[in-house]
Amino acid sequence: MLGTNSKTDIKVTKVDKGSPADGKVKVGDVIIGVNGAKLQNNPRREIAAAIDKSEGKAMRGRLTVELKGGKKAELKLKVFGDFSRTAPANCAKTDALVTAVAEQLITDEKQLQGDILAIGWMGLMATGEKKYLDFVKANLPKQEWAKPDRARMLDIVNGGKDGGYVGWYWGYELIALSEYYLLTGDKSVLPGIEAYAIALSKGQDASGIWGHRMTSPKRRGRLPGYAHIKQPSLTCFMGLTLAQACGVKDPDLQRAIEKYRGFYNTFVGKGTIPSGVSAAYSGAYNNNNNGMSGSAAIAMSFVGDKKAAKFFSRQVATDYDRLETGHATHFFNVLWSPLGANVAGPEVTSEYHQRSRWLYTLYRSWDDRFTHDGNNQKALCTSGTLLLNYCTPRKQLFITGKKADQSLWAKGAEVEGIMNLSQIDYAKLSIDDLLAMFGHEAPQVRRGAVWTLRDRKGSFLRKIEQLILKGTDLEQESAIGFFGYRCPPEWALPRIKMIGKVLRDSSENVEVRAAAYALCWHKPQGQAYFNDMLRLVLKDKPGDPFGLINDGVAKSLVITSENPFADGLVTDKDLFYKAVHKLSQHPRQQARGSAMTLLVHMPAKDFSRAADDVKILFLNRAPSSHSYSNPRSTLLPGGQLLARLGIKEGPEWALEVLRTEDGKGSFKAIAVNSVLNAYGANAKQTIEEIKADPKLLGWLSGGRWSKGWNAAVKAVESGKGAKPMISFEEAKKGKLAK
């Protein structure tokens, strides 16, 4: 039975034939109460609680539903018993549910046949029960995905025919095959394990991530489309580490594991993992997370990275109440979040299930299937999800806790503290309590304390000053940040020199110095430290291989001044252009975009100083890049710069960017249209070339970016604004356009 709910009732939208509600409740009925109690605040949770109680021995399966209009319907549910306080461990009801779900799964061929992520197969293995393992042994090796075509897979990653969205499937299938081999010792699947492992190792991009598709040599080591997709990246990584445990040995495999591990360490201590290649998100514990915190906890535990595994497992554990979020679907949250919380130990797992169980009860169907939000999607075996999560105490699979590192387990009062992090009511805390949180290990807590304290009145500013001067690194960063974005000027401006002193102090931790980006929000006083930010860019940062610090400083430079030349900030040109050059080599698109933005107003006479950097940035060619799907950050300011200087290659180069196989097509189309508009009538030749190519024309003139294309065409057809142009090489040698 499905329905839509308000705060006090649920309107029935579907009744399954043969279900307990069939013939007793009809579509259009409105449920206003269950088991004698009115629905009062959260109908879904209240109904879930009633279902659990009705399934117990005392109620013997009776569920009384009160309908609007004075009617009542008594439904007969299956009796599974009552959940124990330690569920899913030592719980007869959990075991009964596992048996019921596993039974229907092995008798419903459609679910397993369409299970291209192999979740149902892993769920059956997770039970550890002979009956279901025998079924898996007899059937899993026969599946098409268990016998992959190695030659075809290698052709895909070596630049042959595109394989489609294999990034989503290969990782899951490799996990399933590896778990199967490590559980059963069946060597028949080893060739498949090796094929997946080698192909995934070669299909990884320059930063160690995967996307919908694989990279290849002809893609310059980059991924097509959106580029990085972190959910499948995490499962690809898990698969590789398990394949290594199965005995697969290959130099590419080891390299792939180390490269990936490094990338995901950049989020540790900073926040949750967002979509795309963006900074860690510290505003909440789940930012459309798609189960990524949970997946990351498991993945990092596989490689013995205790710090990362501990961080991610606690991030996901406290977010037990936001499972129905996600990009495109919440399926992956429902699947991976409890498994990730399990890395923090059985006490956390038990508490997690106590607090989130209502949702899993609501997703259980009358016929023993498990669905997410009533939608058993093709290729997503949601019954397997329940088995995996309810079988964590059995520890049959590595993803469910087999050979878990017990040093990561939280116990006693620590468990309650972890679970309640997401429930902190900052408004009720005292000023001293909030200040004490400035050094908390959870970035969301630090941020919550800073923003809450901003709304308080009192004589606490000197205490924050003391944290800047004598606090721990985290306390210093929080205290400096307090005086940054949206801080009242009357509070921030008297502390500008204090923060500036931290920025200039070479003995300070470089991350603390970078936190002085807070200065950029306060103009013109903060502009006095523009050159100090440039010097920080040039400082070696051996502990920051992915350049996150410089990425943040680059953004700060742009915020400090939209036109540093007009503002008189470029007082040391050697320093300025050296810093911009370093940023032009940055692996992140955002930092490269900041570099181009800093150059957009440069004098024509200076072009030779940065010509090569401009070309590399514009063409999106930086060999070290690990984010590149949206070149607008470089093409928009780059087009303005080249058009202003009268350098004729701009439109031609933009077209080259459009034709490359990496990056997201719509993002590139928007960026290219911005360049064509910057050149106006001087883009005539390129526009004619586009018009002659149906594919390019359809690409640029369609979709939500058609307005930009139409404006560019109109400018060319008017013939107005055309001006003399020079070549890039001429400009590089110092020639100026007339």
Automatic annotation (TrEMBL):
The PDZ domain, residue ranges: 1-54
Alphabetized InterPro entries for the sequence: DUF6288 (IPR046255), PDZ (IPR001478), PDZ_sf (IPR036034)
Gene3D superfamilies cross-referenced by the UniProt entry: 2.30.42.10
Coiled-coil features, chain-numbered ranges: none
Top-level taxon in the UniProt lineage: Bacteria
CDD domains: PDZ_canonical (cd00136)
Listed name of the protein: PDZ domain-containing protein
Source species: Rubritalea profundi
